[in-house]
Structure formats: C-alpha cells, structure tokens
Design brief:
It contains ten helices and nine strands. The protein is an alpha/beta fold and 312 residues long. It has a single domain, classed as pyruvate-formate lyase- activating enzyme. The strands form two sheets. Strands 1-2-3-4-5-6-8 form a seven-stranded parallel sheet, sandwiched between helices. Helix 7 packs parallel to helix 9 and helix 9 packs across helix 10. The structure holds iron/sulfur cluster. Iron/sulfur cluster binds next to loops.
Length: 312
C-alpha cells in the first residue's frame, strides 16, 4: 500500500498547509517576551537541561521589538532567502507562548493576526501551560483563523523527562493534548530523539504511543547539545552516557520511526538545524535541513518505505 493522495512518502504538514490555503504558507517566528515556569522559578530556574532558546531564535526575532516589527522583518528575511510567499503564520516560538494572562495572550495574538498577510498563529508551549480559559481563547481565535498549538512532548517516558528536568510528566502531556483536541483546536507536538538514557527500541516505541493521541502534527529533532546549557556539562564529563546520532544513522532511524507512526499524523520536520556557533555536538557539517529532508525522502524511496508501513 502506498498511501494518500499526494506523492510524498510521508504525510507532510507543509503540503497540508499548501492545500488548505491553496498556496505556499511561510511560518514567521515571533518572540513575544514570554518566559516559562521552568525558568522563572515557578517550577525551577535552570530550565530543561538541553534548552538554549537563542540557538533557534532567528536574528529578526527579539522581544524588545514590537510584534509588528518582528513580523515585518521576518517576512522580509524569508522573502530574501527563500521562495516568496504572500501569506504567513505567526509562529510564537521561543519559551512558552501560552504562559501569560489571558489579557496579554489576547493582545499579542491579536497584534499578530492584524498584521497584513498573517492568516493564523502557531503557539509553541508546554503541556502544563494551558488551562480552560486559554484553550477557550484559542478556540475562539480558531473560529476565524488558522491555529495550531505545538506542545513540547520531548519524550514519552517520565524517567527521561525527569532526567532532562522538564518539570512535567507524560501523563500531563497526554491529558493536555486530549483536552485541546476535544475542543477542536489542532494540537501538534515536538519530540527529541537521542535523549540520555533512552534506547533505540524505547524511542521507536514512542511511535505507537503517540499514534494513540489526537495529534494533527509532529516535529522530530535529533538531540543537539548546545554550549550554554546544563546538558553540555554532563556531556563533557561523561560523553559515553550520550548516544548522539550521526546523520546517516539518524536518517535510517527516523524512517524506522515514521514507518511505525500512524499515517494520520502529519510530519512537519524530521530534524533540527541550529547555527554551528551554538552547537557542541553532533557535528553534521554544514548541511541544511532541505538537504537532510531530500536525503530522507531518497532513502525512503530506496527502502520502499512510507509512513505507517509498520503501524498497527
Ligand atoms: S525547553 Fe521550553 S520549557 Fe524547557 S526551559 Fe526551555 S523554554 Fe522552558
């Protein structure tokens, strides 16, 4: 069976956006100045051990600028570097983008949605940073605009979540994703492969676990160790405690995972990319994500692989 009504070997979120809007849609990152409970002292101050938001934040995206200014610069940035789009999603990316009062959330989401060309929002957040009122706000917005809430799942195993100091459990993640989806708000998730202590089999086992959840979209990242993190100290003291994927191994791993994943869940990304100046390991050279994706798709062809091939 080679599934679906498109010619990709996986259920592509990018393709979904293109067919939903009838054109190419670009995500533009916004930093609205939020923090997160794992940094402001509510749960802790050190944050997740791998976390360095600066490594992912594009240069135009700074909280001292207004949202309109960030969107304007972000749109110009993308137009000069990539294929031009005429409509965009405001991507509230760094830290926890539902971690504020309802009034503040309303204000920042509205400011983004009133910017010319913005057709929706994507809010990256933690599973313990939404409540009924925030979900009600997102549901209201979703009646008129595209909305996706992107939850940091990172791992399905509490032992790992504890070890990386996430400050929430997988049960909280499950409950929040179910609650979000039950309100008709699209829920997405983010997963990291290669976290310390996890075996290959455990990681592959997450495909079946996540396939049971009402997730519309998922993003995968290989573990990257950044300079300015707690994790780098563990890594430097005991590198043998980490299994960091090299590129070729990762390509086959992530295809194995995709084969076990429900074909109903759209995949937005297979891997992450960060400026080399932040990165300690692994070293994948100067390869860009587009090329990683091309290699994954080529390898899927060679293996006659497709998403859901081994999904039960
Ligand atoms: S990864 Fe997210 S939740 Fe964890 S410390 Fe960083 S911003 Fe906070």
């Amino acid at each position: 069976m080679y599934p679906r009504d498109h010619n990709r070997r996986f259920n592509s979120f990018t393709d979904h956006l293109r067919s939903y809007f009838g054109e190419r849609i670009q995500k533009v990152a916004v930093d609205a100045g939020f923090t997160c409970p794992n940094r402001d002292g509510t749960l802790g101050t050190g944050g997740c051990t791998y976390c360095d938001n600066d490594a992912f934040n594009p240069s135009y995206c700074r909280p001292e600028k207004s949202i309109a200014q960030q969107l304007s610069e972000g749109i110009a940035f993308h137009a000069s570097r990539y294929r031009r789009a005429s409509h965009y999603l405001a991507y509230f990316q760094p830290f926890s983008n539902t971690y504020a009062s309802i009034g503040k959330l309303e204000q920042v989401y509205s400011e983004a949605l009133s910017f010319p060309g913005i057709v929706g929002i994507v809010a990256g957040t933690r599973p313990d940073c939404v409540d009924d009122d925030k979900l009600a706000l997102l549901r209201e917005i979703a009646k008129r605009h595209y909305v996706m809430v992107e939850y940091g799942i990172e791992s399905c195993y509490n032992e790992t979540l504890q070890r990386i100091n996430r400050g929430h459990t997988f049960e909280q993640t499950v409950e929040t994703i179910r609650r979000t989806a039950a309100l008709g708000i699209p829920a997405g998730g983010h997963l990291i492969f290669g976290l310390p202590g996890e075996t290959r089999e455990q990681m592959l086992g997450e495909a079946a676990i996540l396939s049971q959840l009402p997730l519309q979209m998922i993003k995968f990242h290989q573990l990257q160790i950044f300079r300015n993190t707690a994790m780098v100290r563990d890594y430097e003291q005991y590198p043998a405690g980490f299994h960091l994927f090299d590129l070729e191994e990762y390509i086959d791993f992530v295809i194995d995972f995709t084969e076990r994943l429900s074909p109903a869940i759209m995949i937005e990304r297979f891997a992450s990319e960060a400026p080399p100046r932040f990165l300690v390991a692994p070293d994948w050279g100067k390869i860009r994500y587009d090329e990683v994706l091309r290699r994954i798709e080529r390898r899927m062809e060679e293996r006659e692989s497709f998403q859901g091939k081994d999904f039960e």
